[in-house]
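User
Take a look at the entry that follows and flag anything odd:
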Amino acid sequence: MTEPFFYESVALAMTRPFNMAFRRRREAGILARLPPGLRPSGFIFHMIRCGSTLAAQILAASPRNIVVSGAAPLQAAPQAESHGPASAERCAAWFGGLLNAYGQTCQAGQARLFVKFSASSCATTTSRAPC
């Protein structure tokens, strides 16, 4: 993930012919089968004009760091169930599985994972029960 925002990295990856051949939707069970990835080293919480994007880009400048910035799937974790908000256990499993997926290394030397939350994901997560 090299773009300043998660959706930009995903959009760029989806334009590659190889990636266009595959579905863009995954089942939760796939997350549970991934090998252990990097555990988060830090979280960045965004508020408008606070410098969080700059901090994320500075961290991303090091090849040792994986920086996930404003990932919509993390924001959607509380609504993972089709019939309303997920249970606390289901939410934790989705969230942990997503963090593990983002922590999968793809280059030698990657050692740290940082996650930047957008202001809307913080508001959504704190206003919805039970997550």
About this structure: The longest strand covers residues 40-45.
